[in-house]
Design brief:
There is one protein chain. The protein is of the alpha/beta class and 366 residues long. The protein contains eight helices and twelve strands. The strands form four sheets. Strands 2-3-5-4-8-12 form a six-stranded mixed beta sheet, with helices on both faces. Strand 2 and strand 3 form a beta hairpin. The longest helix has 20 residues.
């Protein structure tokens, strides 16, 4: 994801696209420890990218979150289990670097689909070929669907690929948000009527190709055409299929596992939806994690906002700036407590989103 070029993304179907976040190698020992235990940029003015990541000493990854980062009981977070979400992050990280088109990402896809089906979710796979600056790359979006009685759809998004850099395992970017979305699927899929929405369908989409495919000297070259491939593909397909006008809101999560969790209000998101989520977070006692400072972001929500679909991006870019797109983005950077906070806010925000009167779909969404 990138800093403030959101308005420049093309709205039409993408035959290839990806997102921006940089990566660097992770030691084999780190992967062994992880197996045993279990991008982004901003708008307005792009934050400075980490300089010379290769010169930084690689930390020793922890096999589990520190005690202070332990998730609260699910009974205190609306049923969302932060420890389960963290376990998904650890499993994904154990596959190693997962750039678009890689064998490791293929293994991650099988894991994701297996988990979703095990939860009782209906699962749609959208395989497509992205035409990227480095050549065609096979990509795949995975969408879990919880049907409702009404026509409206609430769409949760994350990406699950990592930047194309040697040994970059992307625990926070985007393992953290993928873990959250898998736990949301467990909570809402299958025979859990108490967690169903009143009428709206809930779609949970894990997107491929968010990262830029062009990486120079360890720095992702985010551009409007080399980014958010999966999101552009999903928005275009939903528009062609007549489903986009039914989308009441899009909620995107990305890089939300930081221990020092501080989300700023994305200036490229829909204001009423940002207000709704931030007010929910404050009501739950998380006001110190959801700040009122602005920080416009370019991310997987932009293909939807360009089609006038309400969307909000939940992302903590600045807290992870010291290890973003470096080999230091390892499991020890992810807090199960932070995952639980985001999950709790999502669970409590969904009914509020569903209750809000829906404006007539704009021509761009039809």
């Amino acid at each position: 994801m990138s800093a403030d070029r959101a308005g420049e993304l093309p709205a039409g179907p993408i035959v290839g696209a990806s997102r921006t976040c940089g990566t660097v190698p992770v030691p084999l020992l780190a992967l062994i420890i992880l197996v045993a235990s279990a991008g982004c940029s901003s708008s307005a003015e792009s934050p400075a990218k980490p300089a010379d990541a290769a010169s930084r000493p690689a930390p020793v990854p922890l096999a589990a979150p520190l005690p202070a980062d332990a998730a609260p009981p699910a009974s205190e977070t609306g049923g969302f289990d932060g420890a389960r979400a963290f376990d998904h992050v650890a499993k994904l990280v154990a596959f190693g670097p997962r750039p678009a088109g890689s064998a490791a990402l293929g293994r991650a896809q099988e894991y994701i689909k297996g988990q979703l089906r095990g939860f009782g979710c209906g699962v749609d796979e959208d395989s497509f070929t992205a035409q990227t600056p480095v050549g065609p790359i096979a990509m795949k979006n995975i969408v879990a669907k919880v049907p409702g009685q009404a026509k409206e759809i609430i769409l949760l998004l994350t990406h699950y690929d990592t930047l194309h850099l040697d040994n970059f395992v992307g625990a926070n970017d985007a393992g953290s948000s993928s873990g959250v979305m898998l736990e949301m699927a467990r909570l809402y899929c299958g025979t859990r009527p108490e967690k169903r929405l009143a009428g709206a369908s809930l779609w949970i989409a894990l997107l491929d190709g968010e990262e830029a495919q062009v990486v120079v000297n360890g720095v992702a070259q985010w551009s409007d055409t080399d980014s958010v491939y999966g999101s552009r593909e999903l928005a275009a397909r939903m528009a062609l299929g007549g489903e986009l006008p039914r989308v009441k809101a899009v909620v995107l999560a990305d890089m939300i596992g930081d221990r020092n969790l501080h989300l700023k209000r994305d200036g490229n998101s829909t204001p009423w939806l940002v207000d709704l989520v931030w007010n929910t977070a404050k009501r739950l006692g998380y006001g110190n994690h959801f700040l009122d400072e602005p920080l416009p972001m370019q991310d997987d929500h932009i293909p939807f906002t360009r089609r006038h679909v309400p969307a909000v991006d939940l992302i903590d870019f600045e807290s992870s700036d010291t290890f973003w797109h470096t080999p230091q983005d390892t499991l020890d950077k992810v807090s199960a407590r932070s995952l639980a906070i985001i999950g709790h806010v999502l669970v409590e925000s969904l009914p509020q989103i569903e209750k809000r009167p829906r404006a007539e779909a704009s021509p761009a969404a039809r």
